[in-house]
TrEMBL record:
<keyword id="KW-0067">ATP-binding</keyword>
<dbReference type="InterPro" id="IPR027417">
    <property type="entry name" value="P-loop_NTPase"/>
</dbReference>
<feature type="domain" description="ABC transporter">
    <location>
        <begin position="6"/>
        <end position="247"/>
    </location>
</feature>
<dbReference type="GO" id="GO:0005524">
    <property type="term" value="F:ATP binding"/>
</dbReference>
<keyword id="KW-0547">Nucleotide-binding</keyword>
<dbReference type="InterPro" id="IPR017911">
    <property type="entry name" value="MacB-like_ATP-bd"/>
</dbReference>
<dbReference type="InterPro" id="IPR003439">
    <property type="entry name" value="ABC_transporter-like_ATP-bd"/>
</dbReference>
<keyword id="KW-0813">Transport</keyword>
<protein>
    <submittedName>
        <fullName>ABC transporter ATP-binding protein</fullName>
    </submittedName>
</protein>
<dbReference type="InterPro" id="IPR015854">
    <property type="entry name" value="ABC_transpr_LolD-like"/>
</dbReference>
<dbReference type="Pfam" id="PF00005">
    <property type="entry name" value="ABC_tran"/>
</dbReference>
<dbReference type="InterPro" id="IPR017871">
    <property type="entry name" value="ABC_transporter-like_CS"/>
</dbReference>
<dbReference type="InterPro" id="IPR003593">
    <property type="entry name" value="AAA+_ATPase"/>
</dbReference>
């Protein structure tokens, strides 16, 4: 059976201030399996970034269950969450988020240097160089991010996201700051990573890029819609062929 990476059940997120409560997510049921490429689209304010930050353990849900590779993570403390995030999740943002004071090599090495169990120097070197090769940037290891074009910076950000061999790659508008040629190249790279087995969940406004995913989700007012625009039932939202007979 295909390995389950992610399972969300009844996830809600309420942001409360003195004046009002914002129900950013209103009961999300979502399963992501090894090798999936899931795209999430929807209008501004529908909850896309909130969902990605919960998936990435940058924030905790108000209610519901969230499991990563079978481990319940919804009630974790912030430091426990940071540890799991570093081990299991890779992030690619619209705004690259590279550190200009560090070389390309050191930017990519960063997630490994934050590991609780230190990665030996030779292994770190090998993994960083392998990821640079994957994104075709081996010749820029000693550069600073601000010496590179936007497209090249996003490729470095992809290498940084990959270096820890994450269970899940979370991608938020990866082409938002790129021209169409560089955007297409970054998307081709993500698509190829998925073909080679990387599990991807991507937020995008661009229907062409959303179509590259194997599963397209539409979010509206904090709920996942089906193709007709109606909220999915809990049952229907589970990926097909997962129900084991005899239950
Ligand atoms: N930290 C926050 N505090 C209060 N409200 C928030 C916060 N983050 C997001 N929201 C609200 O939650 C809703 C969903 O936001 P968001 O997930 O950023 O939407 P999207 O990424 O789809 O544009 C919006 O109404 C937004 O204003
Ligand atoms: Mg957003």
């Amino acid at each position: 059976m295909q390995q389950q990476k992610i399972s969300m059940r009844g996830i809600t997120k309420v942001f409360a201030t003195d004046e009002m409560e914002t129900h950013a997510l209103r009961g999300i049921d979502l399963q992501i399996f090894a090798g999936d490429f899931v795209s999430i689209c929807g209008p501004s304010g529908c909850g896309k970034s909130t969902l990605l930050s919960l998936l990435g353990l940058l924030d905790m849900p108000t209610e519901g269950s969230y499991q990563i590779e079978g481990q319940e993570v919804s009630g974790l403390s912030l430091s426990e969450a940071a540890f799991i995030r570093n081990e299991k999740i890779g992030f690619i943002f619209q705004s690259f988020n590279l550190i200009d004071e560090l070389t390309v090599f050191d930017n990519i090495a960063l997630p490994l240097r934050y590991r609780r169990n230190a990665v030996p120097k030779a292994e770190l070197q090998e993994r960083v160089m392998a990821c640079l090769k994957t994104v075709d940037m081996s010749h820029r290891a000693g550069h600073r991010p601000n010496q590179l074009s936007g497209g090249q910076q996003q490729r470095i950000a992809i290498a940084r996201a990959l270096v820890g061999s994450p269970a899940l790659l979370l991608v938020d508008e990866p082409t938002g700051n790129l021209d169409s040629k560089n955007g297409d190249a970054v998307m081709d790279m993500l698509s190829e990573l998925n073909s080679n087995g990387t599990t991807l969940c991507m937020v995008t406004h661009d229907p062409r890029y959303a179509d590259m995913a194997s599963r397209k989700l539409h979010l509206l007012d904090g709920r996942i819609l089906d193709a007709d625009g109606t909220p999915l039932s809990q049952q229907a939202q589970q990926a097909p062929l997962r129900q084991v007979a005899g239950h």
